[in-house]
Structure formats: C-alpha cells, structure tokens
Amino acid sequence: MNFIKNITLTIILFVSSQCFAFRSDSVKLTNTSIHLSIRNFGSKNIKGYCTQKVQFLKASNQLTFDLSSLIVDSVYYNSNFLSHSRNGDKINLTLPTVQQIGDSCTIKIVYRGTPGADPSGWGGFYFSGDYAFNLGVGFQVNPHSFGRAWFPCIDEFDIKNSYDFYIETDTNYTAACNGILISNTKDGNSKIWHYQESTIMSAYLASVTVSKFTILKSQYNGLQKQFPIWLNCLPVDTNKIKASFSNLPATIAAFENAFGAQLYSKVGYNFVPFSSGAMEHAGNITYPNAFADGSKNYETLIAHELSHHWWGNAVTCKTAEDMWLNEGWASYCEHFFTQQLYGIKAYKKSILANHLFVSRFAHIRDGEIYSMTNIPHNNTYGSHVYKKGASVVHSLRSIMGDSLFFIACKAYLTQFRFKNASSLQMQQVFENIGGVKAKSFFENWVFEKGFPHIIIEKQIHSGNGPYKINFFTFQKPRFTNKLYKNLPVEVFFFKNRKEYEVRTIEINNEKDEFNFTFNFKPVFVCLDYNEKLCDAITDRTIISNTQTTYDIPEAFAKLNILKVTDSALIRLEHHWVGPEKYITTQPAMSNYRYITLDGIWQTADTFSLELTYDGRQQGANATLGYLDHTLITKTEDSLTVLYRGFPGDWWRPYPNLQFTTGGKLDKQGKVLIKNAQKGDYVLAMYNKATGVINNEINIEKQFTCFPNPTSKQINLAFATINQSILIEIYDGKGANIYQIKLDNNSNQLHIDSSTWTNGTYTINYYNQNTNQYDTQKVVVVN
Fold this sequence. Notes:
By secondary structure, this protein is an alpha+beta fold. It is 16% helix and 41% strand. The chain folds into four domains: 2-309, tricorn interacting facor f3 domain (Immunoglobulin-like), CATH 2.60.40; 326-446, Neutral Protease, domain 2 (Orthogonal Bundle); 454-693, no CATH class; 703-780, Immunoglobulin-like (Sandwich). The chain is built from eight helices and 48 strands.
C-alpha cells in the first residue's frame, strides 16, 4: 500500500473498547465465498451473504467473526439456522456441538447495509459517483486489517485462504475482483460476476471494484506460468492507461528475476477516483485515476503496489508492529524498479533523495524516533515504516552484496510463502546466508533506533614508496548510544581526481585503527564514496573544471566555484550529528549537524560556500525547517559559523562570513562562507556582548612552543605538571603526523622535526584530567 499526503490526514490513535484476540491458533479458514449485490449506488447499500469454510485447530464450540457497520440478518451452521450475538464488530457464535481438532464446518452469514469507512478517510468501502470499491486497510481502525468493512471474516493477518466472489451488478457495470473470471452471466436485468482466487490471501487483500469499466487485457509469460494482466478503466481513459502502464511487463520481469515467480492468478489494476493513495489487493490493485494521466510520473507507485505481490501479500508481516516487512520493502522496490529500468545513476539519486527526507523528517513526522520494529498503532503507516524502511533495505543490500542479498530474499519468500513472518524470522534467514554481518545488521539497523555515523578522525602518512597510511575512525551513531558492530565500510584512496583504490574496513568500536600500503601517494581519502550506506551523512561529490554554481541539496548548500585551474574534485558531507567536543547542555555549536568540505584541487583554486539554515518547527507535516531548531530558539542575532581544519583541531570563528536574513526572528536564512577552505563548518551562537562563543570553555594558555619558527626540534613547555596530557600535531593538510600521551611528571617535551617538510603545523593539547584544551601553530623551516 502507498498513500499520497496531498491532503492533511490527522491519524488519531484509536483505543479499541474490546481486546482483539488472535484466532489463528484455534481455527483456519479454507475458503471464503462472498455473494454480494452492489447495485444501489444512490443509497450506498450492499446486501448478500458470505460463507466461510472453517477447520478447527483446537477443540471448541465457539466462533467469532468480524463485521463492521453492516447488519446481520441471519447465520447458518451447515445449512441450519444458528443464533448469534453482536458485540461491536464481533459476531459471536456458539455451535450446537464441540468441534474436534480437524473437524470442519460451513458458516453462512446473511448481511446488508451501508459499509463503513475508516474515520481517518483512508480505508474501508467507498461509493463515489459511478464507482464502488474497497480499500483493505484502515489507518485508524484497530486492527488495521479492514476486510470486515464489507464482508464477515476473521480480520487477522495470519488467516489466509482461497476466495470466490459472486458480485451482482447492473448490466452496464463491470465487477473486478481478485483472481480469474470464471463466469459472467446475465440474470434478468443484472449480471453475476464469478471470480476465483485459489492462491490463499489474508482478508485485507480481498477486493471488489464496480464501475462502468472496459478491460484492457494482455498475457504475461512468467517464470512459472502464464497469467493475465487486466487493467479495468473507463473507455475514455484507455489511451492514458496504456501510456502510463507501458512499462508494467518490464516491472513484472524485474521483480520476478529478483524475488521469484509472481504467484497470484493475475496482475490487475482498477482505476478509481481516490487521490490519497493505492492499495495492493492481491492481483486486483486499487489505483488512483489521477495518477494514470498518460505520463510516466507515477511509475514508482505502480511498482510499489505490484511489489506487494512478494512483500506483503505472499509473505505478510505477523503483526502491524512489523509493518516495515510489507511497506518498507515495497518502498525499497520503488528504487529497485528505478535501477532496473533507468540505471544505477537514477537509482542512486532516488535512494539519496529518500534518505535525505528520512534524515531530516522521519522522526519529526512520526513524532518520535523508532526502530523498525514495535512501531505503535498510530505510526503503522508512518515515515519510519515506509521511508526509513527503504533506506534500511538499501543498506542491507549493500552490506551483503547483490549475490547473497537476492539469494536471501528468495529464501525468505520461499520459506514463509503464504505465511506470516516477524523481523526476527527474517533476520534468521538472512543470517543463515549472510553470516555475522547480516546478524549484526539486523541487531543495529532493524532492532535499534538511529543510524551509524563514522568519520576518519586522523590520518598518519609515511613512506616514500611504498606509501603507508595509518588512520583512525571515530564512531558516533545518531539517535542511539549503541555502537555498530561488524559494519563494513568502503574506503576510497584517491591517486588523483579519476583514479582510486577501494579497501573495505570493518567498524566494531568507537575508535578503530587501520593500516594500508600503496604504490602511490593518496592525495584524498574518504568513506563510502558510492553511498552504499544510508547512514547519518548525506553527501555530494562534484568534479568540475568551470567557474559555476552548484546547488547541493544533500548538504543544504550552494558551492560557488570562483576560480579553478584544473578539474577539481569537491566533496561536501552533511553530518546529521553534532560535532565532537561541543560542550554544555546548551551547546554553542549545533548539536544536530555540521558540514565537511574536502576533495582534490589546486592551491590557487577558490570557492565560496553558501549554507542554508532553517530553525522553524512546522509540525507533523513539515516540508521545511528542522535544520537548526535546537540551536536557533529565539533570534539569529548571535549566529556565526565555527571552523576547524580537521577532526581534532580546535573550533574557532570563521573570519569571512556574510549573512542574508529575512529578519532576526524568522529563524531562517543563508550564510556565505567566503574563501572556503578544506575542513569542517558548524553553526554556532556568538555572544557579541562578551565576544565569545556562548558557553564555550575558556582556552587558557597551557603550553609554550619554542623556537617558532623552528628547524630541527620543537620544544614544548607546559604551564602545569599533570599526567594524562595528549599532544597531537597535524600538518597543513590535516594529516596527523605525531601523537603522544604523557604519563610522567615532566613539564617539557622535545620533538624531532628535522625530517619534516617546510610548512605550518598545528599542535593540539588536551588534558584528560582537567578537560583543558589549547592549540598553537608552529612554523617549520628546514
């Protein structure tokens, strides 16, 4: 199912007055036969009966069926009249004899009335002009499965059985249902349409649509069988439908090749006047007229609903709390469809756009931060389930690799075919095929909140061929304190703008250390260049040899290339976490995000970087804001930008800024960073009265460096004698070339700099006992 939020839907948690008891462990249904007259469009009434063939899994004389809004006239047990009672949506039956395990019976329920719709406006049964149709789930009703809106059923995901439909219509109307059309017979001034779906399905997937349809028919030669494709539409819309759905056969082929054979009797779409979304009824998808307009603009919606034939219909989530198994995977299939039809670049663009939304808005839209499991009732169809679910599947595919990923997909869909599954059961299947990496993936990405965030904290380059790099990673996950384990991350070592080598590292700790040797000198190193992980970084890399301006929505920035002497590789990373070493509960720096500018370019090249900030808070349907809402609480008057050359460097105000605001109180605007340098940038609040960054600890001078400039040796003298002093020295490119932790009582340190290249070096001091910092520059001239 997919829904379009082009109108505001306020979904209120519906507290059921009656506890919903699962019945799938007591009985199973073998067939549901629905006999309905759908002719009275003026009064919006239906009437008929439903027979349920029941088999008992436990000895009992009690049965309960679900039916909402409609009136029950009578009930029959094996053709004999049976009394019943109603309690809300429940039809309670006491059978004349106790049924033993394995016994079967037939229950017939005669009913009529105006079928109900979900209070939210999404789900239930609709009469609209010349259309009558159902949508099999309800956003607000509990449970969400809403077959009971139009026929008596056991409205649980776990109950699956075959269906027969006998729908009476006026002679100028067509009924469309799940399955194959067995017969279409005229009976006086009406028609009886008999459809049969022998492939079992849950009640929420059963469907009927009645209108003055013509049927666009074709055949598809599937992996296991040939099956029909039926598109039920008004005659005037046939050309538009054909154009919008011309890629449907290719979409079926893409999903069959990836996930296995399409299992239902047909693939069908019914076009109705409902513009808030579509519903994945098995083989009989209900689809908005407005989105079959002759264009290809809504192909991902077509693909989403079709993919439910695998993800949701054939294998259904065991409970609504695991809805990502249906909707997150179907949402991912939108991106997979894009890749199969339009290529890897289109796929990557689609994935990044989705994850940018997730990073900014998923927790805002849903009102809380969730894992992929145990989603509460009011967010079953929220942003975490759909949008983040797709990001999680993309990351799972990347970590496992295509070969093992698609083997695991097919294994899961085979093992649980026509059954229900939990996230834990999916994990077990993927772990059997993908091993410890898959196991750890589910533990971190599925059962835990948040996202991983990994940066290269420092690099130590040495050697003149072979060249050695010793680098350290720092892990700071977003929205969780749990560290990611067995997380493979690709590292790209660039020889120049076009040539690079890729090595894969495995993250397990807050800080990990790695060593590599190359036959070239790497000039730029970055993580996850191909965006295989939907982590807490959204980024863009640009290669350009012209003076121009680039919009970079992934970083909420514009890059102005003012001078370029050769082709430049410029990478902007937007980190969805606060930077390290921000201090106090009301941080001077943003605790929400910062920007990294890095890449390969000539010293003479010049850039400016325009950052957008937006601290507005617009509520659950936000499309703007929520970038700096934790920083800009009242006014922008003291806003500034801090800069550091590399992780570990001390943050300091950037000297060359130009702000563009609409006002000091609207919490939105832009800041132009002139002559932008490689390094990290973060928004902060600057107290103009005192001339310091709000709440920043005072940086008292902790050491002196002499001589400066120096040649052969750097001498450091410390103001106090303390243990646990950390000294780090970085070169002009941000590479860590020296590090020592002092654990003695000396007040001096002598460092041999005789082999260092000429340049300016940064010395960072940190006393772990007193939490004091200091940073100074030293010039080396040999």
